[in-house]
Design goal:
Number of helices: 5
Order of helices and strands: HEEEEEEEEEEEEEEEEHHHH
Radius of gyration: 35 Å
Strand content: 15-25%
Structural class: alpha+beta
Number of strands: 16
Length: 439
C-alpha cells in the first residue's frame, strides 16, 4: 500500500516531463513527420465531426501518449491523452469541452478525434501525433456555411424597357458563386457579383440583373459552393405589366404598375417583419435569471444566430437605402421631364398660333391649297400637344406615387433600425451571461 501514493505523485511529474519532450521533439522535427497528403473533412457550421486517425495496430490505452493539435494556435493542443486519461493542462481554451476520443475504440488503434459544434474558427489543419513512435498524420477541416438568397424587384430600367432585380445572401463560407438563370435554365449575363466579408471571413454576396420581357418572366437567383457541395436558390416572377411598352414614351409608366410594386414591397416587408417580431417577443420573455440556467454552448449558439440576424438587417437597411436614393433620383428626373414637357407645350402653342394666323390671313389663288397644308400641319401640332399634355399628367401620377414610395421606404428603414437595436440589446445580455459563466 505504501507504493500506491508514490506512483500517484510521480505520474504528474512524468506527464509534465513527457509534454516537455513532445514540445522539444516537435519543435525540431515535427513538421518533417508528415509523409502523406492530409485528408479533407468537410462539415457545416454547428455540426459534430470526426477527424480520422489510426495507429495501425492494437494499443494499450494505459500506455498510449497522443496529441491532437493545430500548429497555427498557441497553445496548439486541441486534445492530449497521457497513459489512460486526458490531460487538460495545456489544452487551448477554444476546445475545452468540445473534443474527445472514442475510448472504447482505443484498443483497436482508433484514435479519431470527435469535435462538437464546429465553428468557422475551426477551419485549418489538425495533426494527430504519437510522440513515442514519432508518427504523425494530418486532417484538414473545412467548416462551411450557407443560407438561402433573397430576390426582390429593385426598379425599372427606362433605358432598356426592362426590370431590375436584386439578389443577396449572407453567411456563406467558403467564397460562393452567385448567378442568374432564366425560365429555361440558361445563365444570364449579370456582371460580377459584389462580395464582402466579416471579421471571421464569412461572405455576403449580392448581384443585380436587368431583365427584359420573356415568355414566362420566371427568373432564378442561385448561390453555390462546390467545396462544401452546397447550393441554394430562390425564384421570382415578374408580371407582364412591369415591363414598359417600347412603343410608348419612355417615362410614361402606368399607375397600375406602381401600385403592383407597392403591393409586392409591402407584402415582402410585412412577412419579414412578422418573423422578426416573433423572434423579438420570444427573446423578451427570457429573463436574466432564466438565461443564467442556459448552458454556455446554447448561449453561444443563440449569440451566433443573433449576430446573423444583425447582418441580415444591415443588408436590408443597405438595400432599402439604395432603393431610397434611386427613388429620389427618379423623382428628380420626373421633375426635369415635366419642366421639359411644359416648355414643349409652350412651343407647340406658339407654332399652333402662328399656323392659325397664316391660314386666317391667306389671300389669292393659292389660298385653298396652302390652307389645306396648314390645316394638316395644325392637326399634327394639335396631336403632339395632346400627347405632351397626357405625358405631363402621367409624370404627375408617377411623381405622386414616387413620393409615397419614398415615405414608405423611410418608414421601413426606421422600423428595421428599431429591430436592430432590440437585437443588439439582447446580444449584450447574452455576452454578459457568457462572461459571467467564464469567470
Amino acid at each position: 500500500m505504501a507504493h500506491i501514493p508514490q506512483r500517484l505523485s510521480l505520474k504528474p511529474f512524468f506527464a509534465e516531463l513527457m509534454f516537455g519532450f513532445i514540445l522539444l521533439v516537435d519543435s525540431c522535427k515535427g513538421q518533417s513527420l508528415q509523409t502523406e497528403r492530409p485528408r479533407l473533412v468537410a462539415a457545416m457550421l454547428g455540426d459534430d465531426v470526426v477527424l480520422p486517425c489510426h495507429l495501425g495496430g492494437s494499443v494499450n490505452p494505459d500506455e498510449l501518449v497522443l496529441e491532437w493539435g493545430r500548429l497555427d494556435l498557441n497553445p496548439r493542443f486541441v486534445f492530449m491523452w497521457f497513459e489512460g486519461s486526458e490531460n487538460v493542462n495545456e489544452k487551448n481554451t477554444a476546445y475545452k469541452g468540445r473534443t474527445s476520443l472514442f475510448t472504447d475504440r482505443l484498443k483497436d488503434g482508433d484514435v479519431s478525434l470527435r469535435l462538437t459544434a464546429v465553428k468557422h474558427s475551426d477551419n485549418g489543419r489538425f495533426r494527430c501525433y504519437n510522440p513515442k513512435e514519432m508518427k504523425a498524420d494530418s486532417v484538414d477541416l473545412l467548416v462551411g456555411s450557407a443560407s438561402s438568397p433573397g430576390a426582390s424587384l429593385s426598379g425599372l430600367d427606362v433605358s432598356s424597357s426592362g426590370v431590375m432585380l436584386d439578389c443577396s445572401a449572407a453567411g456563406w463560407y467558403p467564397e460562393p458563386e452567385m448567378f442568374w438563370l432564366d425560365g429555361d435554365g440558361n445563365i444570364m449575363s449579370a456582371g460580377a457579383a459584389e462580395k464582402s466579408t466579416d471579421p471571421d471571413g464569412v461572405y455576403t454576396v449580392s448581384s443585380r440583373v436587368t431583365v427584359e420581357k420573356r415568355n414566362n418572366n420566371n427568373f432564378t437567383c442561385r448561390v453555390q459552393q462546390r467545396d462544401i457541395n452546397q447550393s441554394r436558390e430562390t425564384h421570382i416572377h415578374v408580371p407582364d405589366d412591369f415591363f414598359i411598352n417600347e412603343s410608348s414614351c419612355s417615362v410614361s409608366i402606368s399607375f397600375n404598375v406602381i401600385l403592383v410594386v407597392m403591393v409586392v414591397l409591402g407584402v415582402a416587408f410585412i412577412i419579414w417583419m412578422k418573423k422578426q417580431n416573433k423572434k423579438v417577443k420570444k427573446l423578451k420573455k427570457i429573463s436574466e435569471e432564466q438565461m443564467k440556467l442556459i448552458p454556455a454552448a446554447r448561449l453561444e449558439e443563440e449569440l451566433e444566430k443573433r449576430n446573423k440576424d444583425q447582418k441580415i438587417i444591415d443588408q436590408q437597411i443597405k438595400s432599402l437605402t439604395e432603393m431610397l436614393e434611386e427613388l429620389k433620383e427618379q423623382k428628380k428626373q420626373l421633375t426635369d421631364q415635366m419642366e421639359e414637357a411644359d416648355k414643349m407645350i409652350e412651343e407647340d402653342e406658339k407654332k399652333f398660333k402662328a399656323v392659325d394666323d397664316e391660314v386666317t390671313n391667306q389671300t389669292g389663288n393659292m389660298i385653298e391649297k396652302k390652307a389645306q397644308g396648314y390645316l394638316k400641319l395644325k392637326g399634327m401640332i394639335t396631336e403632339s400637344r395632346e400627347k405632351l399634355v397626357q405625358r405631363k399628367k402621367d409624370h404627375q401620377k408617377v411623381g405622386f406615387i414616387t413620393d409615397k414610395l419614398i415615405k414608405r421606404t423611410n418608414d421601413e428603414i426606421n422600423k428595421l433600425e428599431e429591430r436592430k437595436q432590440e437585437i443588439e440589446n439582447h446580444v449584450k445580455k447574452i455576452q454578459k451571461q457568457l462572461d459571467e459563466k467564464e469567470t
